[in-house]
Amino acid sequence: MSDQSTQRAHESTLCWERLEAWAREKIQGFLQALLEEEVTTFLGRRKSERRMVVDARPGYRNGHGKPRRLSLTTGTITVRRPRLRGLEARFESRLLPLFQRRTREVGELLPTLYLHGLAQGDFELALRGLLGTGAPLSRSSLQRLRAQWEAEYAAWRQRDLSDRELVYIWADGLYVKAGLERDKAAVLVVIGAMRHGRKEILALESGVRESAESWKAVLRALQARGLSSPRLTIADGHLGIWAALAELYPESAEQRCWNHKLLNVLDQLPRREHPAARALLCQLPYAETQAQCERLRRQVAERYGRRYPKAVETLERDWDRMVTFYRFPREHWKHLRTTNVVESPFAAVRLRTDAAKRYKRVANATALIWKVLLVAESRFRRLDAPELLSEVHHGVTYVDGLRASAERQRRVAA
Question: 370-381 pLDDT, tens per residue?
C-alpha cells in the first residue's frame, strides 16, 4: 500500500474515532448560532448594526454569560447565552430558558432507564456514559429531579377528570417491597379506556389490596374530580374493590379476571392434573357464547367434582361476574377477560421492585413508580374497534358479543 493510501486510511480512522465528538461540536456551533440569531430577531438588527429604524427595539448586546453545559441525548455541549442591556422588557430565550441544564428527553431518560432495570444509584454512571463526562449531573441534581417528580405526581393526583368519557376501567392491587415494611404493601392502580379508544392511568395510590376502605378512597377521589361511572369494571376476585364499587358505582357492570380465576382453580388440583385441567379450563373464557361457556363449566364439574370438589367450588364461585364480558362487543373481549391491561405495564416495574427497598415505605416510592408507568402509558395500544366504544358508552345492548335487535334492547331496558 502506498504512503498516500496509508495516510488516507489513517485520516479515515481518525475521523471515525472522533465522529461523536465532531457531531457534538457541530451541534454546539449550530445551537450557539441559533442563540445569536434569536437575539438578532428580538432586537431587529445584527451585531454592531446601528439602530436605524424608529420602531426597532431598544437595547444592545453586552457580551455573553458564563459557559453553560447542556445535556442532550446525543451528549453534552457547552454554549454561552448572549447578554442584553437597556431593554424595556426582559428577554427570555425560547431556545434555552434560564436554569435549564438538560433537555426534556434527557429528563425522561431516567424513568426509562429504571424501567429497563437500572437501579437509581447507577443513574449517574450510566448517564455520564451516554451524555459525556461534562454532563451536569450530581446526586443532588438527581434528588432535585425526584422532588420534581413528586411535585408532578401531586399535581397529577388533583387533575380534573370531568372531560373523560369513560367506558371501561381495570383495577388491580400490585405488590411491591420496601425496606421497613414487613407485610406486603400494594400500589392500587386504575386504568381507564375512553370513548375514543385511548387507555389512560387514572389512579395510582399506595394502599391495602384487600381493603374496601382503601379502594373506596381511590374511587371517591376519582369521583370528586369528576370521573363518570364506567360501563364495566374488570378486577381480581379477592379485591375489596367490589364492595367499594357496590357503594360508589352501583350501576357499573363487573367482570372478574379469568387469569386469576384459572390460577386459583389450578391451586386446588394436584400438579399431575395441571396439564389436562389447564387445557380444558383455558377453553372457558374463549367460548363463542355464554351457553357454550356454561357447558364447558359443567364438563369441568363432571370431571373433577367428585375427586376435587374445592376446585369446582372455586371455579363456580362468583360465576356471574365471570361471564359479564359476553354482554359487550366481541371485538373487545380480549381486553375485558383479564386485568392484563394493568399487569402488562406493571410487569417491568415489578421486576425492578428491589429499587423500592431503597425507600423505607412504599408510599415514598409511589411517585417514582408513577413516573415509570407514565413511560409505559405512552406506549399503550388503543382498544380494538374503538368505534364500538361510543355504542357501549351510550348503553347499547350486546348479547354474546353481538349487537342486540332493537326489540330485544327495549325488553332489556324495560
Answer: 877 887 788 888
Report strand pairing: 253-256 vs 232-235.
parallel
d(CA 178, CA 94): 42
Domain range list for the chain = 3-85, 166-403
Cell 465528538 locates to 21
- Distance of alpha carbon 41 from alpha carbon 314, whole angstroms: 73
What's the pTM value of the predicted model, to 2 decimals?
0.70
Distance CA 254, CA 139 (A): 47
Q: What CA–CA distance (Å, rounded) separates 165 from 194?
A: 5
Q: What is the C-alpha separation between 105 and 86, in angstroms, rounded?
A: 35
Euclidean distance between CA atoms 380 and 316, whole angstroms: 33
Cell of 293: 361457556
Q: 199, 341 in Cβ contact below 8 A?
A: yes
pLDDT in tens, 15-40: 666 767 777 788 788 888 888 888 88
Cell of 99: 436554569
C-alpha cell at 41: 430577531
Question: Identity (one letter) of the amino acid at 383?
Answer: L
